[in-house]
Amino acid sequence: MRGAILLFLLVYLLNLIPAFAPPTWMVFSLIGFRYPAHEGTLLALVGACAATLGRVTLAKLAYVIVTGRFLSQSTRANIEAIREKLEKRRKLTFSAFLFYALTPLPSNYLFIAYGLTGMGLLLIAIPFFLGRAVSYRLWAFTASAVARKLSLESTEAMPYLGGYFVVSQVLLLFLVYAFTKIDWRLLFAERKLRWVGKTRDHRSNDVEG
Questions:
Q1: What integer is the mean pLDDT of 68-91?
Q2: Residues 6 or more apart in contact with residue 92 via CB below 8 angstroms
Q3: Of 22, 118, 142, 193, which residue has the fewest beta carbons closer than 10 angstroms?
Q4: 187-195 contacts at long range (C-beta below 8 A, 24 or more positions apart)
Q5: pLDDT given at position 8
Q6: Cβ-based neighbour number of residue 3 at 10 Å
Q7: Nearest to residue 185, comparing CAs of 195, 173, 175?
């Protein structure tokens, strides 16, 4: 019971960090390496609950802090176009988050971007929980099987910090920035990709001309 509580707190904190946090799947891989005979289904469910709560909290903080205090009115109006699109395609949104949660790809930037829209979080929390419960169990099971065959120690598991990880996190942060700067209404209406400021300047020049 104590181990489950510690796991919950660890996974929750890892999923609350907006960037440069070690991926949660690595925690379950390490558990599988260290305790190959341990039943991982319960721990996977605990981890999925913690990860979902952490990501939902992160999304909520993104909306309260970033959208509420730092985004301009024009940027908020621009993001509103994304919200309108997602609300019309709720089943697609649900399916996309479920599929994404089954992969080992980082989800922090995805929840931050979604949180900026101010949409209801239940729509993404449920598929994320389901996907993570399955993927965490799979990672623990795979690591356990490898540990039994190769007798690997947990200290021999893959390193967390590396050039690839740092570069990928910086790139993902840029994608969140780009998410707020792309003129989504123009992209949806005319299939043209432009920054919000550049689009506004372009239209001003057209009026002056």
A1: 82
A2: none
A3: 193
A4: 188/81, 188/85
A5: 92
A6: 12
A7: 195
Average pLDDT, the chain: 78
Dihedral (Cα; 174, 179, 182, 187), 10-degree rounding: 130
d(CA 189, CA 176): 22
CA dihedral of 161, 141, 5, 19, whole degrees rounded to 10: 30
Q: Assess whether pLDDT exceeds 80 at residue 143.
A: no
Identify residue 66 by its one-letter amino acid code.
V
Secondary structure letter of residue 182 according to DSSP: B
- Decide if 176 contacts 112 (C-beta within 8 A): yes
Matching residue, tokens 């929980």: 129
Cβ contact 147:33 at 8 Å: yes
Q: What are phi and psi of 81, to 5 degrees?
A: -65, -35
Return the ∠ at Cα 185 (arms to 181 and 186), rounded to 5°: 85
| Token pair 């623990």: residue | 140
Q: Is the pLDDT of residue 149 over 70?
A: no
- What secondary structure letter does DSSP report for 118? T
